[in-house]
Design a protein that fits this description.
The chain is of the alpha+beta class and 564 residues long. It has a seven-stranded antiparallel β-sheet with strand order 2-1-5-4-3-6-7, with helices on both faces. A five-stranded antiparallel β-sheet has the order 14-15-20-17-18, covered by helices on one side. Helix 1 packs antiparallel against helix 6. Strand 1 and strand 2 form a beta hairpin.
Length: 564
């Protein structure tokens, strides 16, 4: 075997080992955490950055969290030049200084070898409460970030192996469930520690110089693949628009506009023309908006490009200051990782539909569900819960129907719905209904995934509920003559039979014991002309209760006999 082949094999071994290490970090975090958000929903991401803060490897977790890890590390490098030591651990959540939104806390652990930082292990996870004026930290009526929770700039939580108790005390003193948050921070640190141990094992087999060389190759290779994919698109300017329902204060839709400029081997995502920042919490700081833009662009360019910082080099992003996608501090931003992150991705999809349509799905359902909190009557303990079972569905794409019961675009495939029985043990409610909703899927040659009907009966007294999300006014778009999906819907039914239709952004409301919440989530948009769908697929959809016979006739032109 020649030397060149040996080098290629060695690079592949190191690359796959790095990916395996990030996966092991994720498994450790899931299994050692206390919060259902970690252990059940897996609302977290893990990754490895090199000594310069470039993302090298990430798990297939929450995309909007994983790719953002590079921003956090670079903020630490900037703040602590020459001051990062073995045994240090950093913590960060500030959206205006390297974070996503306040509930997503990043833990960063450097690996120092002979005085040089070779890697940073990163875990970023959504915590159930980070303070602020509303439990759960989704404050639909916040007008500034200070009302959303505790801001943590990049600071040391552990110094040379010693926990800085004053920092931990300051953080836990400002949240409603301090023990759970502290335990989950330990879980994040433990996951990073496993990453560090495995990287040291890797260094036992390969020299630091060899590993650094391979990491440089991996980044350069991703850049090369990205530029080749961009080169495959026709040069030009491609414009896409998407809309957010509202900001919870005014009722007008908010525009996100992107011009995708393709020039030879480089792509620019220019969001000039996007509406100005708003009063409510649907603004998105630069870390989240840039990450969302990368997700949308790389999705359009193909699945074979490694999702690392090398791929990002060929994709330039312009987010005008003072706009919805790059607001001035201290604008509120808590909803940003759901909306408008998903709408940023959606706008890019629609811009590139004519040149990359076969690789892009129709519109996805937007998240719109509640958080709920109170005192659990079974143990008199405070709780905060989230309706992760109220997920929408994906859009159809060339060659297959949209996936049902998916997280929104920004979390694509990352968030898991918790087990119903476990959910009822954790929170004082009963699940009355959890099923697919008939006629909610956008019609198409490849239809969208059907939405979900989810009903809960609360028996805490009282239960406080907050609605946060979008998509009650603007449905998931249809693509290539496909039809749009359904809208989100939420309703409260009181014990006396009174029904209250909820809005997508409502601050905390106190519910009496016995109140039933019903959420009907969006079905995904359809792809392609519905009249081109295989009639046998239509028949099976009717049999399975996904569409009604009247829908089959109206949208697909398929008439079924009564015996079917």
């Amino acid at each position: 075997m020649n030397a060149k082949m040996d080098e290629v094999i060695e690079q592949a071994v190191i690359a796959n080992r790095l990916d395996t290490i990030t996966k092991e970090m994720g498994y450790a975090l899931e299994r050692s955490s206390r919060s259902p958000i970690f252990a059940e929903a897996c609302d977290f991401a893990c990754g490895i950055c090199n000594g310069d803060g470039d993302l090298v490897s990430q798990i297939n977790g929450i995309p909007i969290l994983a790719a953002a890890g590079t921003f956090s590390v670079k903020e630490i490098i900037k703040k602590y030049p020459g001051q990062v030591e073995e045994g240090d651990v950093f913590i960060i959540n500030d959206p205006y200084q390297g974070g996503n939104h306040l509930p997503d806390i990043g833990i960063i652990t450097p690996l120092v070898v002979d005085g040089e930082v070779l890697f940073y292990c990163v875990s970023r996870a959504h915590h159930g409460d980070i303070g602020g004026s509303v439990a759960g930290s989704y404050n639909a009526k916040a007008t500034e970030i200070f009302q959303e929770g505790l801001r943590i700039p990049p600071i040391k939580l552990v110094s040379q192996g010693r926990v800085i108790n004053e920092v931990m005390d300051l953080i836990t003193r400002n949240v409603r469930n301090p023990q759970m948050l502290q335990n989950d921070l330990w879980a994040q640190m433990g996951a990073n520690n496993i990453g560090s141990v495995r990287l040291k094992e890797l260094l036992n087999n390969y020299s630091p110089a060899r590993i650094k060389e391979t990491v440089g190759y991996l980044l350069d290779h991703a850049e090369k693949l990205t530029r080749l994919a961009i080169k495959g698109l026709p040069n030009g300017d491609y414009i896409g628009e998407e809309w957010v329902d509202d900001d919870g204060f005014q009722t007008n839709p908010i525009k996100i506009k992107v011009t995708v400029k393709v020039r030879a081997e480089e792509m620019t995502l220019d969001f000039d023309g996007t509406d100005s920042q708003v009063k409510g919490f649907v603004n998105t700081a630069l870390v989240t908006s840039t990450t969302a833009a990368w997700i949308g662009a790389l999705w359009a360019l193909g699945p074979d490009i490694p999702r690392n910082s090398g791929a990002f080099r060929a994709i330039k992003v312009n987010m005008p200051k003072g706009s919805l996608v790059n607001p001035h501090d201290p604008a509120p931003v808590t909803l940003s990782t759901l909306t408008p992150a998903s709408e940023i991705i959606s706008a890019i999809f629609q811009a590139l539909d004519t040149v990359a349509g076969d690789r892009l799905p129709a519109g996805f359902g937007r998240y719109c569900g509640p958080s709920f909190y109170g005192i659990d009557p079974r143990n008199q303990e405070f709780y905060v819960g989230f309706a992760f079972c109220a997920l929408g569905s994906g859009g159809g794409i060339a060659g297959r129907d949209g996936y049902a019961y998916m997280a929104p675009l920004s979390n694509y495939g990352g968030v898991r719905a918790p087990n119903i029985e476990a959910n009822e043990i954790q929170y004082p409610h009963l699940t009355l209904c959890h099923e697919m909703e008939m006629d909610s899927a956008g019609s198409g040659m490849w239809r969208g995934g059907p939405g979900i009907r989810y009903s809960l009966k609360f028996y805490g007294e009282p239960t406080n509920i907050v609605m946060f999300g979008d998509g009650m006014k603007i449905p998931p778009f249809g693509s290539v003559s496909g039809k749009s999906g359904s809208l989100n819907f939420a309703e409260l039914t009181m014990e006396d039979g009174q029904r209250i239709t909820m809005e997508s952004k409502e601050s905390d409301r106190s519910l009496p014991k016995g109140t039933v919440l019903t959420v009907i989530t969006s079905g995904g948009g359809g792809w392609g002309d519905p009249l081109q769908r295989d009639p046998e697929r239509v028949r099976q959809d009717v049999i399975n209760g996904i569409i009604s016979p009247s829908k089959a006739r109206q949208d697909y032109g398929v008439v079924l006999e009564d015996s079917d």
